[in-house]
Amino acid sequence: TDEEEFPVEIFVKFIHYKGKPALQVIGLDITERIRAEDELRASQAQLFTAIESMPFDFFILDSEGKYSLQNSFCRKSWGDIIGLSPRDIEVNEEVRNVWDENNRRAFAGETIEKILEFKEGGEIGYFHNIITPIWDDGKILGLLGMNIDITERVRAEEALRDSEERYRSLFDASPTSITQLGLDGNIIECNEATAKMVMMPREEI
Q1: Are 174 and 190 spatial neighbours (Cβ–Cβ below 8 Å)?
Q2: How many C-beta neighbours within 10 Å does residue 178 have?
Q3: Is the pTM of this model over 0.85?
Q4: Distance CA 69, CA 75 (A)
Q5: Residue 46 DSSP code
Q6: Could you count the other beta carbons within 10 Å of the beta carbon of residue 143?
Q7: Which of 141, 144, 96 shows the shortest CA–CA distance to 118?
Q8: 119, 111, 186: which is closest to 151 by C-alpha?
Q9: How far is CA 84 from CA 69, 78, 114, 146, 172, in A?
Q10: 175/192 Cα distance (integer angstroms)
Q11: Angle at CA 122, nearest 5°, toward 116 and 124?
Q12: Is there a contact between 52 and 74 (Cβ–Cβ < 8 Å)?
């Protein structure tokens, strides 16, 4: 017959059998348990790797409002904050007050998203702060949070707005007739010089 190896858990107990000392030995096949534990460890390792690979702050606050988990990005941004509360982190009072309010509302069951402004190295930056409760059987065990740096996006949006405002100012103030046509050939925009030239209100043109 084919021989097959499999894990066994052995229980040994000293007993008396027919008036003589003896050992009672029970062997349990734990193949499925070992397989399930291996799969759980692999799943936990994959989750840990995913969290560590996130290019933004990822953290968990326990039921007492103290940090119980942070990823490498968060550690690089704020240092080792495990066991601390948000009040222990050095940020300006305005940001700290927003954090307090966000956490209070999240512990009450809300998911909060805010754009926060912060100063770093004399420059103003922005991050998208997300806080959500961790639910278990109807109870909040803690909070899961993320800080996503959106400084470059905000600066790009501000630059775009400035560019559009400058373009609009030049468009409106130009003494030369300027007209924009759609793909169908209809006029979709014109400046005041065009309106004066054809002696019609811009809205009608």
Answers
A1: no
A2: 14
A3: no
A4: 10
A5: H
A6: 23
A7: 96
A8: 119
A9: 11, 11, 22, 16, 56
A10: 8
A11: 25
A12: no
Residue in 150, 55, 54, 140 with CA at minimum distance from that of residue 103: 140
Tokens matching residue 14: 């000293």
Cβ burial 4-32 (10 Å sphere, 16+ → b, else e):
eeeeeeeeeeeeeeeeeeeeeeeeeeeee
* pLDDT tens digits in sequence order for the chain, 205 residues long: 467 888 899 999 999 988 899 999 999 999 899 898 888 888 888 888 889 989 999 999 999 999 999 999 999 988 999 999 988 888 778 878 888 899 999 999 999 998 888 776 677 888 899 999 999 999 999 999 999 989 888 888 888 888 888 888 888 888 999 898 999 999 989 998 999 999 999 888 8
Q: Which of 93, 81, 49 has its CA nearest to residue 145?
A: 81
Query: At 192, which amino acid appears?
Result: E
